[in-house]
């Protein structure tokens, strides 16, 4: 059933992004376009009711910072959250990250709790000391944050007011970071950080369900800070002018990505980035913007000879991994490259089946970090021709370039 839903979701994405053609796809786009007008009215009505205090915001008596965007996925929210958490923690703040845990699997409730209607407590991914949940129950992004931020509390719950109160009561936190929280209005925000992807600033310019916009671009006026992500160093004059049409006061910060080295996902072994230069690789990812990842590999000098894409947040099966590794072996490719976010959704293959090596992990400059992971598939030739696979990851460091920052 899960695979069928994924196929249906993949078909819907292809229709929305106009990768599907023909009468059926065109009719469906027309229906979705009409529905997007209804969606827009609902969004604007909700904002109006919060402004007029018909719907009430909750306050928890601490600093609340949201980090989100106007589009569906692919702008680099999680790296920005990680960077902010590190900076706030270093400044003496007691930080908790609140995530909704998109596509995570909650704990099963027993029948007694169902009868009593006891509310589930937030899932504690990290208590600031230990990593307590796996990526399936936590969700891939909360798991990544908890793994990379050893001393920061990470909680998962759709009700951020409940999880925020839980963090304050249990750990006396004084700062709440809402991952993907720009549209979460039930908890009063102090600062709103909005991310805009330079490569597709406002998606395909259509609202859901016809497009990828959650809100119209004019709602950028609610932002306190705007981050333009995935910069290449080229000027963003047109985008800056458009942003200033909607928000004249928010500080705008441009971010770029700078990888540092390759790191073995399983052993921690490191390799220089030169290991990718003039290397024929396979790309395997399930993220919102696979094109940007593949372009990044090309810029590092790799030749992406084979690629396989799944829908965002896809959980890989052992059969899928082994199948792709064998395809890469047949084409005599040196590496299979995937993102760090993908790596936490991959089953760990038995040693007899897999032999793992480092993969790239990028961290953007300015205030964000985007990690990727690469894996190496290599054929060990002997009399019995035994196959072995290595998975690698590239670690990057944020570098702030003052020339890229503008107000």
CATH superfamily of the largest domain: P-loop containing nucleotide triphosphate hydrolases
Shape: globular
CATH topology of the largest domain: Rossmann fold
CATH class of the largest domain: Alpha Beta
Rg (C-alpha, Å): 22 Å
* Whole-number mean pLDDT: 83
Give the strand tally: 17
Helix content: 25-40%
Beta-strand content estimate: 15-25%
Cross-sheet strand order for the largest sheet: 3-4-2-5-1-6-7-8-17
**How can the largest sheet be summarized?**
9 strands, mixed
Low-confidence stretches: 352-390, 394-407
Provide a concise account of the structure shown:
The chain is of the alpha/beta class. It has 11 helices and 17 strands.
Tell me about this structure.
The protein is of the alpha/beta class and 407 residues long. It folds into three domains: 2-51, no CATH class; 63-256, 3-Layer(aba) Sandwich (Rossmann fold); 259-396. Helix content is 31%, strand content 24%. The chain has eleven helices and 17 strands. The chain has helices at 2-16, 23-51, 77-90, 111-116, 135-138, 140-148, 160-171, 237-246, 290-299, 318-330, 340-343; strands at residues 63-69, 95-99, 123-127, 153-156, 175-179, 191-197, 225-231, 251-256, 259-264, 270-272, 280-285, 303-309, 335-339, 358-360, 372-380, 386-396, 405-406. Strands 3-4-2-5-1-6-7-8-17 form a nine-stranded mixed beta sheet, sandwiched between helices. Strand 15 (372-380) and strand 16 (386-396) form a beta hairpin. Helix 3 (77-90) packs parallel to helix 6 (140-148). The chain is globular, with a radius of gyration of 22 Å. Residues 352-390 and 394-407 have low confidence and may be disordered.
């Amino acid at each position: 059933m899960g695979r069928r839903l994924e196929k249906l979701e993949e078909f819907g994405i292809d229709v929305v992004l106009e990768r599907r053609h023909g009468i059926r796809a065109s009719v469906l786009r027309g229906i979705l376009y009409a529905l997007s007008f209804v969606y827009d009215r609902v969004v604007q009505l909700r904002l109006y009711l919060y402004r007029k205090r018909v719907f009430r915001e909750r306050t928890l008596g601490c600093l609340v910072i949201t980090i989100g965007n106007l589009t569906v996925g692919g702008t680099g929210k999680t790296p920005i959250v990680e960077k902010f958490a590190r900076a706030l923690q270093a400044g003496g703040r007691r930080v908790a990250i609140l995530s909704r845990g998109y596509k995570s699997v909650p704990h099963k409730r027993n029948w007694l709790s169902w009868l009593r209607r006891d509310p589930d407590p937030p899932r504690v991914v990290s208590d600031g000391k230990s990593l307590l949940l796996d990526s399936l129950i936590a969700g891939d992004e909360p798991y990544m944050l908890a793994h990379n931020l050893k001393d920061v509390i990470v909680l998962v719950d759709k009700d951020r007011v409940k999880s925020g109160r839980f963090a304050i009561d249990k750990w006396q936190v004084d700062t709440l970071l809402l991952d993907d929280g720009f549209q979460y209005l039930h908890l009063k925000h102090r600062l709103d950080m909005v991310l805009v992807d330079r490569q597709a600033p406002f998606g395909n310019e259509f609202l859901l369900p016809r497009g990828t916009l959650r809100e119209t671009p004019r709602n950028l006026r609610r932002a306190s800070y705007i981050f333009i992500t995935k910069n290449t160093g080229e000027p963003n004059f047109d985008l800056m002018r458009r942003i200033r049409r909607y928000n004249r006061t928010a500080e705008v910060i441009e971010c770029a990505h700078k990888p540092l080295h390759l790191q073995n996902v399983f052993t921690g072994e490191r390799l220089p980035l030169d290991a990718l230069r003039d290397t024929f690789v396979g790309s395997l990812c399930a993220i919102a913007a696979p094109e940007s990842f593949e372009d990044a590999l090309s810029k590092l000098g790799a030749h992406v000879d084979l690629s396989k894409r799944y829908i965002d947040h896809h959980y890989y099966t052992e059969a899928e991994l082994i199948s792709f590794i064998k395809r890469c072996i047949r084409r005599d490719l040196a590496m299979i490259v995937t993102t760090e976010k993908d790596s936490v959704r991959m089953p760990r293959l038995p040693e007899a089946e897999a032999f793992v090596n480092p993969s790239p992990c990028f961290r953007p400059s300015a205030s964000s970090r985007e990690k990727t992971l690469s894996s190496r598939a290599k054929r060990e030739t002997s009399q019995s021709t035994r196959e072995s696979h290595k998975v690698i990851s590239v670690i990057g460091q944020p570098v702030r370039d003052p020339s890229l920052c503008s107000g």
